[in-house]
Amino acid sequence: MVNSYSLGGYLLFRLHPESKVFIDPRTDLYGNEFFERYLILLRADEGWREIFSEWEIDYAVLLASAPLRAALVREEGFVEVYQDGKYAVLVRPLPRFEALIEASRESDGRE
Asked: Is the pLDDT of residue 108 over 80?
């Protein structure tokens, strides 16, 4: 998973230990180099695809305004399964997410 920095603490609390967060507010644990690479990824700056591929990310929990959200939908083929104007959840179209993708299509009337 990749997540927006501001969501990291909540996601860590809710998902640990089943899922790992990409980043949370404990930036001192990650180091400057990691944080700089994270910012490249989140902003979808030059080089973001390489970082994304390196981490083998299958889903994202992001602020809806994050440039990475738009890049994933547009360029990487992710499916947005949730969006409420503030937050968005995107998944790769993989078998393990099939039910989630189908449920989101049904709720949007896109059957």
From this structure: no
Token pair listed for 52: 């994304």
Q: Which DSSP state fits 96?
A: G
Decide: residue 47, CB within 10 A, 0-12 exposed, 13-18 middle, 19+ buried: exposed
Residues 28 and 16: their CA atoms lie apart, in Å, by 19
Pairing, β 87-91 against β 79-83: antiparallel
Cα distances (Å, whole numbers) of residue 100 to 80, 90, 106: 10, 10, 10
Task: Please report where in the chains the tokens 């049904």 appear, as a residue.
Answer: 106
- What are the tokens at 2? 């990749």
pLDDT at 109: 67
The confidence score (pLDDT) of residue 30 equals: 86
